[in-house]
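Page 42, continued from yesterday. The earlier attempt failed because a stray header line got pasted into the input along with the sequence. Redoing it now with the clean sequence only.
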Amino acid sequence: MSTKTYPLALPESAFSALRKSPVEFVEEMKYAALVKWYEAGMITQDKAAEIAGLSRFEFLQLLSRYHVSAIQYTEGLLDEELENYAGGKDSY
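This time it went through. Structure tokens are written below.
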């Protein structure tokens, strides 16, 4: 995957707030954004892992670190699962 670099202006205090070097801080920002985008249903686990440069297993570990469930239900899917459960259907 080819990459591009974009400038990001941050105050010096940002790095000390998390006790991270600038490189570690930017990596942490990237991970936090990817986890949030996954949680919001904007990207898949596979795409998030690819962007992060992690294996899918490592991304699942990252989700755990951020206390985000690896299983994301949309409202419609959850309703469908509950209807199937109430009706005695097995969706597997």
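Notes: Residues 22-39 form the longest helix (18 residues).
Reminder to self: strip header lines before submitting.
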